[in-house]
Amino acid sequence: MTNNCHDSPASARRLHRETVDFLHDLAAWTLFFSLTFRKPVTVEEALGAVKEYCQAIARLHEHQHVRFAWFGGQQQGGRIHIHILGATIPCMEFKSSSRELERLWRHGNAEVEDVHDRAAVVSYLMRKKHDFWNTAIACDRACPCRRKHGCRHGGRWPSPLEVTHQ
Q1: Residues 85, 121 contacting (CB under 8 angstroms)
Q2: pTM of the model as a whole
Q3: Helix, strand or coil for residue 106?
Q4: Are the CB atoms for 119 and 24 separated by under 8 Å?
Q5: pLDDT over 50 (residue 166)
Q6: pLDDT (mean) for 71-92
Q7: Cα distance between residue 52 and residue 139, in whole Å
Q8: In which band, very low, low, confident or very high, does the pLDDT at 1 lie, cut at 50, 70 and 90?
């Protein structure tokens, strides 16, 4: 039996800490979303709904690019529950109220809260068990992004296969 240095508890703690630091420094997170589907859906369907939701926030309500980090998994009963961190680009307050953003979610329950302590929220998310997580930027353009070489703020939205097989 070989000893893989990546399997040690110290290595796992270091990876966890680096991931927390990465997410903390990635954006000035200002909103925390909790989304629960009302009925069981596949991961692919859930990720498609989350993408549509995030793009609707960027396009319809904020009229600007928004960075998102999402974390999700199945709850008991097969329903998927997703947490999302949101930050506008450039770093500004969200124009929409939490209530408006909650009403945009049509697939079940939604709660949107202000982030008061980024480090605490990121640490909380990393302590929870999630089946998948990723980050992306939702573009404010109807056809994201119509620029020849893509969005000026980052890459494309990851596919469900990329998200679920990290």
Answers
A1: yes
A2: 0.80
A3: coil
A4: yes
A5: no
A6: 88
A7: 11
A8: very low
The SS3 call for residue 149 is: coil
Distance between CA atoms of residues 87 and 6, nearest Å: 32
Following CA atoms 28, 130, 48, 149 in sequence, which dihedral angle do they give, to the nearest 10 degrees?
A: 50
Q: Does residue 10 lie within any of the structural domains?
A: no
Total count of domains within the chain? 1
Q: Which tokens hold the place of 141?
A: 């353009």
CATH number of the domain where residue 62 is located: 3.30.70.1910
DSSP string covering 1-14, please?
----GGGSHHHHHH
Domain that holds residue 81: 28-164
**Residue 79 counted as domain residue:** yes
CB 126 within 8 A of CB 23: yes
In a domain, 13, yes or no: no
Element (H, E) at 87: strand 80-89
For residue range 14-54, list pLDDT tens digits in order: 776 777 777 878 888 999 999 999 999 998 899 999 999 99
Flag whether 2 is in a domain: no
